[in-house]
Amino acid sequence: KDKFANIRQALANGGPPGRFLSFALANYERRLKQESLKKLPEAKGDVRKIVGQPFFVPLFTLFRTYGGIFRLSFGPKSFVIVSDPTITKRILKDNAKSYSKGILAEILEFVMGTGLIPADGEIWRVRRRAIVPSLHKKFVTAMLSLFGDSTIRLCDKLDTAASNGDDVEMEGLFSRLTLDVIGKAVFNYDFDSLSNETGIVEAVYVTLREAEDRSVGIFPYWKIPILAAIDPRQRRVAKALKVVNDTLDSLIDKCKQIVEEEDDEFHEEYISERDPSILHFLLASGDEVTSKQLRDDLMTMLIAGHETSAAVLTWTFYLLSMNPSVTAKLQREVDAVLGDRAPTIDDMKKLQYTTNIINESMRLYPQPPVLIRRTMEDDMLGPYLVKEGEDLFISVWNLHRSPLLWENADAFQPERWDTYSAAEASQAFRYIPFGGGPRKCVGDVFATYEVVTALAMLARRFNFELAAGAPPVSMTTGATIHTTNGLHMTVTHRTRAPVIPVTDVPSLTTVDENGVIKS
Ligand code: HEM
Question: Any long-range contacts for 421-427 (C-beta under 8 Å, 24+ apart)?
Fold first, then answer.
């Protein structure tokens, strides 16, 4: 491995001149090594080609041309784009300590501070150790009734629309469903956003939209204090952020008081009957944390657990609307397992096809479609040396749609998960809807149960079709994949089991250069 090691050692023992020669030899070796390294394939980007379409779509074309790792340069700025499972595993797992969240932490700082998603180093280690235990098995099981109750509220809304013959915009409704769920689960606050649009709910949305816009914005004008102070939009954001922060601060204070008054004994699977939230667990555990850090963590979970789950549901319903035979099979499973009940923890294992649909939807529409990292020290990625300070995008979209890794990669085939488990695919880093390694999502089981519950209960009660005359469904990027104009659907009551012949013909979905999905 180090063919000069013995010579260097011998020289080093030869007094000052020997030590000098040993040092020179080491430098020579380093140069030799660098010269023998391959240069990263380089794609020169034209910003104009990327603007106006979701940026992960052209990255797929470049991946097919330049391979699993390449550099994409725009003038002086460059990114390393990774679409290879072995290199992804090195970055996320085997050498995770050499990577930070880079640009992502800079963008999200204004809203998440040093919350778990942007945090790195010691703060991340300490907070991860405190937060992971709060999502224990008993907590997630207790959340099932919250998922069921919140979905029933959505069903009530859809009932009215179905009776009146009104079309519904499902992306917005899913966003509200998941906001209600995450508010209750994380800090026991009922946003009731399905019926309430103003005040705190509006403030949350202004804050979230800003975080998303900053993630995809080209010019970071908010960094210039004078512009941020006079721009009406930035002033609105600052006001909204204050409303959200004040609400979180008062929830933290209230919860602290309750915890001090109660004399429950804390244990590993502790759960307060009165308030089973993550916040209550953290305070009862005696977690020594400043109120600001706690607020950053709550805000992080609010954002992390909200738009992601909503986006998964949105694209699942879109895919189902294109695949009636899958919907029919789903409804047969739900009819047999649930009838009109909300699911219990035992049902989760039985709702296998429903879970496969969610797995397949997260493969085709991963949320977020790229993961962001920065090298904190030089690293070898495959045969390439990547220097400290490089910004990397791991394209989950490319991994999940790579024809090198998947048969019929673009087809929506939930059946593929009958024989290939999602856990096995995740271990191979070819399927990473929740990331991987030490920074894997802390809410993966929670979120899976949440979306499986919503899908099962909605499919049991209603039929959904794309609304006639609605704009075509196309993609746009924020932190997650959104539709450009909403997911407009016609919803009808399921009075009896639909009679659709079940022929599982895979439908091919492709995406054109404008991000419009074709089937
Ligand atoms: C991290 C996806 C729901 C909390 C992540 C990551 C992904 C992800 C891909 C890794 C990010 C990276 O490595 O850069 C999802 C999806 C969800 C979901 C697809 C829904 C379907 C949730 C929920 C919560 C949550 C419900 C909270 C209860 C977090 C946190 C992290 C994270 C705190 C950061 C973990 C760390 O850095 O140590 N999520 N997530 N997520 N997620 Fe989720």
Answer: 422/359
Place of tokens 């006001």: 239
Specify the residue with its C-alpha closest to ligand 1, atom 11.
435
Among residues 389, 330, 334, the alpha carbon closest in space to that of 360 is found at: 330
Asked whether 412 lines ligand 1 (CB < 6 A), one says no
For ligand 1, atom 8, the nearest C-alpha belongs to 434
Q: Using a pLDDT cut of 90, give the percent of the chain over it.
A: 72
Q: Where are the alpha helices (DSSP H) in 305-409?
A: 307-322, 324-337, 345-350, 352-364, 396-401
ipTM above 0.90, yes or no: yes
Three-state DSSP state, 374: strand
Residue whose Cα lies nearest atom 13 of ligand 1: it is: 435
Inform me whether the pLDDT recorded for 501 exceeds 50.
Answer: no
- Quick check: 236 pLDDT over 50? yes
Alpha helices by DSSP H, 41-169: 47-50, 56-66, 85-89, 103-112, 121-131, 137-164
Mutate which of 302, 308, 361 for ligand 1? The one with the most ligand atoms within 8 Å of its CB, which is 308
302 Cα to the center of ligand 1, angstroms: 10
Cα(305) to ligand 1 centroid in Å equals 7
pLDDT digits (tens, 9 = 90+) for 132-183: 999 999 999 999 999 999 999 999 999 999 999 999 999 999 999 999 999 9
Q: Is the dihedral of CA 151, 203, 225, 74 positive or negative?
A: positive
The 10s digit of each residue's pLDDT in 275-306 is 999 999 999 998 889 999 999 999 999 999 99
> CA 206, CA 349: separation in Å to the nearest integer?
38
Return the structure tokens found at 307: 């738009």
Q: Is 416 in the pocket of ligand 1 (CB under 6 A)?
A: no
90 CA distance to ligand 1 centroid (A)? 19
